[in-house]
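agent> Task received from the user: take the single chain below, predict its 3D structure, and emit structure tokens. No templates, no multimer pairing.
agent> Plan: (1) validate residues, (2) run structure prediction, (3) serialize to tokens, (4) report one or two observations.
agent> Step 1 OK, no nonstandard residues flagged.
tool_call: predict_structure(input=
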Amino acid sequence: MIPDRYPDAEILAQRGHWDRATREVVLDRVTNIPEFRFFNDGERRTLEALCACVVPQDSRPPERCVAIAPWIDQRCHEALLDGFRFDDMPDERESWRAGLAGLDETAGELFQHAFADLTDDQRRTVLQAIDGGESPGDVWGRLPPRRWWRQFALRQIVAVYYSHPYAWNQIGFGGPAYPRGYASLNHGATEPWEPREVEGDGSGENREDWR
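)
tool_result: status=success, residues=211
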């Protein structure tokens, strides 16, 4: 397990400095996780397994895990789409449904089980086959596997994860600066409210503190 580089970071402690609109948007991501309304139960299981494979969160307490799949479901249900699509793929909602079906097809061909029922290593094998464009399954005959994986599914999963304040803690992002603004504009200096990574002390591990 990789240790947390900023174990004392707590971006939400800065929420009193944000304007009301920003505070409401950020806190909504923590407290108002959407219900599933677009994907059926089987698709939901596959999507949740895929998100867990892309962003493992086993080392975190359950209350500090970032819910990813529900926000993708909401995006599809409310048609909050990018406004573009690749010319060799259907629209976003159908691309998700087809791709999740493709994951299960490839998992079934390789391991005789649904993707959600595979081990972590088996899931990675399925994704490697899709990334290499050599994934068995009828879906991939009409949906480009590598593009679906790299430029569609992976992009959305990572984007949802890093829009959450718990993920900001992980990377040391100080959160919104509006309306307070930035003051340390040179030499990469951190702001007083930002987490600071302390140099290693010779033990082979870095220590961090929170200003």
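agent> Step 4: summary for the user.
Residues 11-178 form one domain.
agent> Done.
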